[in-house]
Amino acid sequence: MATTKSVEASLWWDPFTDLLTDLENLPPSSELPISLANKLKENHLWLLNSVSMFKLPNQKSKEALDSQQVQIGQHRLTVQPEFKELALKISSSLGLDEVQSYILVERSCEGDTPDIAALEPLHLNVMIQYYIERQCVLKCIRHLLMLSLYVEDSSKADSSVREMVLKLISDGLETKLLSVIESLLSATYPESMEVDVFTLWAEEMLIEDNLILDILFLAYYESFCTCDGKQWKNLCLIYERMISGSCNFGKLAISTESVKFIYHARVQLLLILIETLYLENILQMVHDETPFSQGSISFALSDIQEVDAIISSLDPFETKEAGPLILAWAVFLCLISSLPEKPENNIIMEADHVGYVRQAINAASLNYFDEFLHSDLLKDSEGPIASSRSVLRTFISAFIASYEISLQLEDNNLKLILNILEEIYRGEESLCVQFWDRDSFIDSPIRCLLYNLEGEFPFRTGELVSLLSALSEGAWPAECVSTQMALFSLFRI
Q: Per-domain residue ranges for the chain?
């Protein structure tokens, strides 16, 4: 009679490559099939905890492979000695639970004759499959969030997908993902892993960083969860570690691909930090003359003081990625300080937002946004591009409003702002529609800048035509641009 040992049921997972394929093949606005809905519910724990469900090696799992069969919940493995030997090597190389390593080996070798000589070359293939599975878990979460955005509010797909997303959020997805990214930032190269696979390991870890940040960006941007002052401080500290080299993150820049992944992660976290300052809400408060105490500001005064201490320690001349964050924080402080009925204490007034702006501008921090918009990062993105552009649109608009940016600004910086605006709006019909909607207070400062350009005719005709061209995406925006040009020509006559 075969000996059987049982291990934790949570060690088992069905291939996430298959689940991701099912999600990607689902038309955005279609009803979620019952079979897929059930599969998602069954994988709730894995989706919630993502890559942390892949466990470290442990003695119980290692001993379980000494038996003839391993019981994993409802699943049973028949242990083959050749597979076991390779699984133990994989476990040592990846720092992965022995039973989970065996599952990977068995799936990778499915249909093959268990000949150890033939299996040895599969070592690298199994490792690659492991990273693919980890990333597919994260891609499934990201795709769920994106599906919940594309469907109609009244559809069954919306209710089922959105309920699943909200369930993940309410169960702590945000906190768990932040915990995972903290562990990834401090991850060290496994000593037992061969040197020739170091590049592979580094790139795969960075891909996971990017996927997690993509998920968090969507979660915050689409208001699935709210980032308060304490959480923003934590994100700020993670960003500071990313750009300062105080964690292992920067040490993974060992290939062209890994450098690209590092750049993407830094930009994505910067966008998250800008988005979670909720500048749109504060602009609305300024517009409505809402007092500080009555507004929906996620920062307590103590949070502002603590964050300001972090921001003041950053040097944009030493680390260029610090400048854009300093600039965003300055805009936040400036808007807060302009609200009526400010708090009696001087925490906000003592913060030198004007000094921050001078420092960031002198360090050419606006160039960082321009470089990002002209890079291939947005073209290669699998997420909603318009969301990233929208965040920058709100930030630039808030910057213009805060510091009354006008045509008197030093030419190079004004040209840079206009270039950034053109890249934000170009090709994005939804943003162009919002711009020409006169009820859109977010775009109001940018509209004022446009009208000022018109008033400079004929000295700034090139900049005017270029900006109007970028704002003409879509039938109605194109009509608005045409009307604007006609009125402008008539006025000049």
A: 4-124, 175-362, 404-492
